[in-house]
Amino acid sequence: MTPRKPAVPAEQEALPEPVAPREPAVPAAGRARAWHAELAWLPGLGVRGDVLIEAAGRLRNSAQLAIAGAGPLGGKLRRQAARLGLAGRVTFLGHIPDPDLPALYRAADVFAIASEAELQSLATMEAMASGLPVVAADACALGELIRPDINGCLFTPGDAADLAARLDLLTADSGLRHRMGAESLRIIAGHERESTLETWAAVYGLMAGMSRSAMPMPSASPASPEAV
């Protein structure tokens, strides 16, 4: 869920992040809450927490955005939220220990991720396994996990207005959230270990069969003079 922190030069180190309590406190104002699971460890990797915060400023309803995670970009994102006057709408939860993550997922109504560099996105899969609808950037692995209008929505990468519109749609409709959350559970079941191994075994078996069929047949050896 939370990536291992790489070495960061001292001048880039952020101030220590607060550790969430056993039952993470998610803002109570507004009945619907959206949250995102991680901040970037290094700039330029496409995680785009700035897009999430800008989208929070564009929301039309009273939904809250809770951001969990820690890293060098934390200070920059806090300053962005303060500059946009979002102190009452965006909460930074800091690092969340793995045992506390299920409680945080249960406290959320929507999972949002603006990353443009997800190769697998375990955080998104954990959110789906918790029965949450997902609003995600249409990039890399996220486009494979999210089925538009089925278990969530995809938005144009980097487009905060598009992200805000998708979040407004979901946070305003509890029935839609519940239906999409149920679909998330159904879809993620196909990513279980046994199912994945069976799929790869079938693929390898198919490839092996194609390889054998493509191999040229050995030509018959010419008859020896003694056999004539």
List the helices and strands and how they pair.
Elements: E1 33-36, H1 49-58, E2 64-68, H2 74-83, E3 90-94, H3 101-107, E4 110-113, H4 122-129, E5 134-137, H5 142-145, E6 152-155, H6 160-171, H7 174-188, H8 193-214
Helix pairs in contact: 1-6, 4-7
Strand count: 6
Helix content: 25-40%
Write down the secondary-structure element order.
Answer: EHEHEHEHEHEHHH
Q: Which CATH class applies here?
A: Alpha Beta
CATH superfamily: Glycogen Phosphorylase B
The whole-angstrom Rg is: 24 Å
CATH architecture, please?
3-Layer(aba) Sandwich
Distance between the termini: 74 Å
The tally of domains stands at 1
Q: What portion of residues belong to β-strands?
A: 5-15%
Uncertain runs: 1-31, 35-45
Major β-sheet profile:
6 strands, parallel
What is the fold named in CATH at topology level?
Rossmann fold
* Side-by-side strand order of the widest sheet: 3-2-1-4-5-6
**Helix-and-strand structural type:** alpha/beta
List the total number of helices: 8
> What is the residue-averaged pLDDT?
74
List keywords for this structure.
228 residues, alpha/beta, Rossmann fold, six-stranded parallel sheet, 6 strands, 11% strand
Question: Would you write up a description of this structure?
Answer:
Residues 1-31 and 35-45 have low confidence and may be disordered. It is globular and about 70 Å long. 39% of the residues lie in helices and 11% in strands. The chain has 228 residues and is an alpha/beta fold. The protein is built from eight helices and six strands, in the order E-H-E-H-E-H-E-H-E-H-E-H-H-H. The longest helix is centred in the C-terminal third of the chain and has 22 residues, at 193-214. Strands 3-2-1-4-5-6 form a six-stranded parallel β-sheet, with helices on both faces. Helix 1 packs across helix 6 and helix 4 (122-129) packs across helix 7. The chain has a single domain (10-191), classed as Rossmann fold, CATH 3.40.50.
